[in-house]
Amino acid sequence: MPRLDAAGREEAVRRYIAGENSVAVGKALGITSSAVRQLLQHRGIERRSQKRPRKHPIPDLPTFTEDEYAAERWRPVAGWSDLYEVSDLGRVRSLDRVVVRSDGKRRRYPFQHSGIRSLEFT
């Protein structure tokens, strides 16, 4: 692994500040990306966040008042009436049910609101 001279270290810092990531800088200069990160850390340059924006951002959910929630009416879903209900506010919930497993044990699944934002039944 070659060691960088002063000019090489300056080139690494310049490339990183210009927007290249540590892997690209390392490949261009013939060193590892971890060596680039160590150099940057030694120089006091903060590491850029690796977080990328979501491809499909989650839309904001509608907000309802307490009165609207209190007046919410639930209707069974056609074809799934023993499992799910949909409210007039567009929320989906599953109903209480008991499932008997193949070993004879019973498992109770209590009612819960799902995190599903939209549901399409065909």
**Helix-strand string:** HHHHEEEEEE
Strand order of the largest sheet: 1-2-3-6
How many strand segments?
A: 6
Query: How confident is the prediction overall: mean pLDDT?
Result: 80
Percentage of residues in helical conformation: 25-40%
pLDDT < 50 runs, ≥5 residues: none
Strand content: 15-25%
Biggest sheet, in brief? Answer: 4 strands, antiparallel
CA-CA gap between termini: 60 Å
Radius of gyration: 28 Å
Structural class: alpha+beta
Note the overall shape.
elongated
Tell me the number of helical segments per DSSP (H or I, 4 or more residues long).
4
What does this protein structure show overall?
The protein has 122 residues and is α+β, with helices and mostly antiparallel strands. Among the domains are: 6-42; 66-113, no CATH class. 30% of the residues lie in helices and 16% in strands. The chain has a four-stranded antiparallel β-sheet, with no helix packed on it. Helix 1 (6-18) packs antiparallel against helix 2 and helix 2 (22-29) packs across helix 3 (33-42). It is elongated, with a radius of gyration of 28 Å.
In short:
30% of the residues lie in helices and 16% in strands. With 122 residues, the chain is of the alpha+beta class. Helix 1 (6-18) packs antiparallel against helix 2 (22-29).
Task: Draw up the topology in text.
Elements: H1 6-18, H2 22-29, H3 33-42, H4 66-70, E1 74-76, E2 84-87, E3 92-94, E4 97-100, E5 106-109, E6 112-113
Antiparallel strand pairs: 1-2, 2-3, 3-6, 4-5
Helix pairs in contact: 1-2, 2-3
